[in-house]
Amino acid sequence: MQQIVSKNTMQNSDTYTIKTKTTSLELMNKAAQAVMKNYPFKGKVLIVAGIGNNAGDGYALAYHLKQKHIDVEILLTENKFSKDGKYYFDLCLKLNIPVFMNILDFSQYDILVDAIYGIGFHGNMPKNIEKIIQKMNKSNIPIISIDINSGLNADNGLAKTCIHSTLTVSIGALKPGHLLNMAKDNIDNLINENIGIEIKGETYYLLEDTDFKNIIPERMNYSHKGNYGLVGIIGGSQNYTGSVKLANLSLLSLTSGAGVARIIAPSSLIPSISPYLLESTIYPLPDNNGQIIYNKENIDKALSKVTALLIGIGWGQNKNNEQILNYILNNYHIPIVIDADGINTLSKIQNIKPGLILTPHLMEFSRLTGLSIDEINQNPILIAKNYAKKHNIILLLKGPATIITDGSEVYITNTGCPGMATAGSGDVLSGIIIGLLGYLKPDIKTISFAAYINGLAGMSAQAEKGSVSMLASDTVKNISHIIQKFTQK
Q1: Within this chain, do residues 141 and 166 fall inside the same structural domain, yes or no?
Q2: Are 291 and 391 in a shared domain?
Q3: Strand partners of residue 336
Q4: Strand pairing of 308-313 and 230-235?
Q5: Do 261 and 291 lie in a common domain?
Q6: Same domain, 157 and 42
Q7: Of 363, 367, 476, which Cα lies nearest the Cα of 420?
């Protein structure tokens, strides 16, 4: 896993390292060398520099490029320098590196380097810099961003105008803005380089393949389906026409390793669900016009021997569901995953029991918290973490990068792709989660693993079908070979 830190933590860590271990000039030098080693600089290079220490990294890079006999020039956005930045700028002048202002024609250059803002950007961008960034993006010339794309918020990945980079070389540790919200749309390739900055402060983690090595135990011959859990899936309503989705959820839970899957649905929906169920069991519940009727005895029979439960897919919203959810939460102490309409129901009753696993997207999380989507987007990690801590739950907040937190730790998965922005993708994730909970611990690592393999399967599907044409069912087809990679040998 890779470290992720907030802008404030990174700045404090930088200050601490300079006070106790090295100089700012040496860190600039190391940052420049880190960028240089990660991209094959050749041809004619333009360093576009702002006024702070990020510009200093750019000047140090220009110095090293010139030393390697690479043709390099500098564009100043303003004739102003930080103290340490000026040191490297003066070295560039001694090497006769050309310096310009107000260049907007980039056609003569082979590579552009973004050293305008770094993580310190906030507020409104001056019009002249906005114009430069827009021209850089339209140039179709490779752009290398130092630390983070100028204009991209380091804590949340939001931007009005920002650089679209061919490569971003993060310095010290990744920041949330490298991963969240608009980051993926503006960073083609991302590499982090540790240049010796000692991190002081809270750390989040970006998950990688190695974090899940052998997470799934090898199956023994001397075992049976009961060893791997009986998972229940409560869902469906009259207005929910995707009966195949309920069946797919069941199939997914089995593909993910559960021993038995039980679909619990309104009786009137069973004829439309049954043709799609081959390996799973069905438990019909009495309903009224497609809505499950609240009855304690029927619910207890339906949940008999169930070891983990998923609630809410296609459930709709009505008073019966509120009563059903309340009853289950107050009387069952098995791993419970709540998704989709189940979250909308939970937001009404606000009976958030410790140990729950909630998987909202932004709108559903907005209903749970009472905060607007814009408010959440401004600081999604902290808001998610505080909510999980307050209620002692595991929260999985869906997005371009998925945030998973138990209120103590925060993990981020960056797997996934644009093709997953289609109906049913959230259902696929829920099916994987409940399948894994049949036989793995209901902890943050298991939930993170579900999000991770869901994203990998989606990426595999997109490679086959393309981002426009792929369906959630294409992700489903790729789950089994992805899971195989993480099974103990």
Answers
A1: yes
A2: yes
A3: 309
A4: parallel
A5: yes
A6: yes
A7: 476
What's the pLDDT score for residue 165?
98
Q: Quick one: how far is CA 438 from the chain centroid?
A: 25
| 8 Å CB contact between 60 and 54 | no
- Lookup: tokens for 415: 């797997």
Residue 403 phi, psi dihedral angles, 5° rounding? -100, 125
Residue 290 structure tokens: 């497609």
**Percent of the chain clearing pLDDT 90 (strictly above):** 76
Residues 351 and 476 in one domain: yes
Domain containing 423 — which CATH number?
A: 3.40.1190.20
In a domain, 91, yes or no: yes
Residue 33 belongs to domain with CATH number? 3.40.50.10260
Pairing of β 190-193 and β 204-206: unpaired
Q: CB 138: neighbour CB atoms within 10 A?
A: 10
Q: pLDDT of 163-186, one tens digit each?
A: 999 999 999 999 999 999 999 999
Going from the first residue of the chain to its last (489 residues), give the mean pLDDT of each consecutive group of 10, the final group possibly shorter. 96 94 95 97 97 95 97 95 94 96 89 95 90 96 98 96 98 97 96 95 96 87 81 84 56 80 89 76 91 96 96 88 97 96 95 97 96 96 98 96 97 92 84 93 97 94 91 86 84
The answer to whether 167 touches 135, Cβ cutoff 8 Å, is no
Same domain, 144 and 262: no
Domain presence at residue 111: yes
End-to-end CA, the chain: 22
200, 225, 249: which is the final residue of a domain?
A: 200
- Say whether both 164 and 277 belong to one domain: no
Query: What is the domain extent for residue 321?
Result: 210-484
Is 89 domain-assigned? yes
226 and 94 belong to one structural domain: no
Those residues whose C-beta lies under 8 Å from the C-beta of residue 29, and which sit 6 or more positions away, are 60
User: What is the number of domains present in the chain?
Assistant: 2
Contacts of 123 (CB under 8 A, 6+ apart): none
Question: Cβ distance 59 to 49 under 8 Å?
Answer: yes
